[in-house]
Design goal:
alpha/beta; six-stranded mixed beta sheet; five-stranded mixed beta sheet; 13 strands; globular; binds arginine
């Protein structure tokens, strides 16, 4: 009996210290909460519904991560440029905004593992004849600070590019004829084209981009904790399921 009690004690202790490692090793800005910057103009990854709730692929993934880590999720909605800055200036634990992992962003964030890949796409009016070959002759709309903006500015210069604070504004400009096309992540372009009549999506030759969550630099324990859950969700098919669910509409 004594021996049994001793073993039980050891097992219990091990369980306690394991959960201490799982939950206590990282710190967040606000205890018990994950404070996340987000630019919710990027369906199906993040958007707001009619009631102003933040919805999409990434909020669904983050909800599970929060639950598994015992953390409440607190979103700070803002434009993409500001959302990129928030984890770097101590205002957020991480950015959740369909962030492409780039070499030059690795000095700004500690990235989690990537969970999806996209390419840039051109979105234009159905009757327009715009491809990669004549993209440089168009007025291109982009969201400021994005990879789309970086490529368009690098390749065609300021005179051909209009940067908007949100992709919603960029798509309004396309509808109004202020720009000829939008350069945007393909799944997002398809999502806008599915809700705005008369648009089409054209593939580009820009390199593949991989999305991750950008955690504030130095908080490697938080990156590890998020990765542990994220890996599981990738392996068991949950991430694919969530992506399919949001790509249907
Ligand atoms: N993937 C692109 C990038 O990292 C665009 C992200 C824009 N995100 C957003 N939520 N508006 O630059």
């Amino acid at each position: 009996m004594k021996k049994f009690a001793a073993i039980l004690c050891v097992v219990l202790l091990a369980a306690v210290s394991l959960s201490a490692v799982a939950e206590g090793a990282f710190t967040t800005l606000v205890e018990g909460k994950l404070t996340l910057s987000i630019s919710p103009d990027f369906p199906p990854f993040e958007n707001t519904d009619d009631d102003g709730n933040i919805i999409g692929i990434e909020p669904d993934i983050m909800a599970i991560i929060g639950e598994k880590l015992g953390l409440e999720i607190d979103y700070l909605p803002m434009d993409f440029d500001s959302a990129l800055l928030a984890p770097q200036t101590g205002k957020a634990d991480a950015i959740v905004s369909g962030v492409t992992v780039r070499e030059d962003r690795k000095s700004q964030f500690d990235f989690t593992h990537t969970y999806v890949s996209i390419h840039q796409a051109i979105v234009c009016k159905e009757d327009a004849d715009i491809t990669m070959d004549n993209l440089g002759e168009q007025m291109i709309g982009v969201q400021s600070g994005t990879t789309g903006a970086i490529y368009a500015l690098d390749d065609f210069g300021e005179d051909q590019v209009i940067s908007y604070n949100t992709y919603s504004l960029a798509f309004m400009a396309l509808t109004n004829g202020q720009v000829d096309c939008i350069l945007v992540d393909d799944l997002v372009g398809e999502s806008y084209a599915a809700t705005i009549p008369g648009l089409k999506v054209v593939a580009t030759t820009y390199e593949q981009e991989d999305f991750a969550f950008g955690v504030s630099k130095g908080n490697t324990a938080l990156v590890d904790a998020i990765n542990a859950v994220l890996d599981e969700l990738i392996e068991d098919g949950t991430v694919t399921e969530i992506i399919l669910k949001h790509s249907a509409n």
